[in-house]
Amino acid sequence: MPKAAKFFALLVLLSMLFCFALRAEDKSAASYRQKCSACHGADGKAQTAAAKSLGVRSFADPEIVKMSDSELSTIIDKGKDKMPSYGKTMKPDELKAMVAYVRSLGK
Hints:
This protein is mainly α.
């Protein structure tokens, strides 16, 4: 196979992977807006009236940042305090993608 063809094949593969990653993030962002932003805020900073009344912390809070992905996934899956569980409506790969999205908001 000529070098140009190998390069083109690699370029196509990389662009496909990039598109899949963007699609997963878009889906997580949409799900977050629908299910989470009312309390956690669109930016994850917990500056909403609901967050203040419920004691919800920012995703940038050191206590949240130090939590493992597994701990965050469990909270999303099973709920915590007043937060409802989403395990019945989210598949394991969606939970993982949501954890990554939440982490991105904490930066």
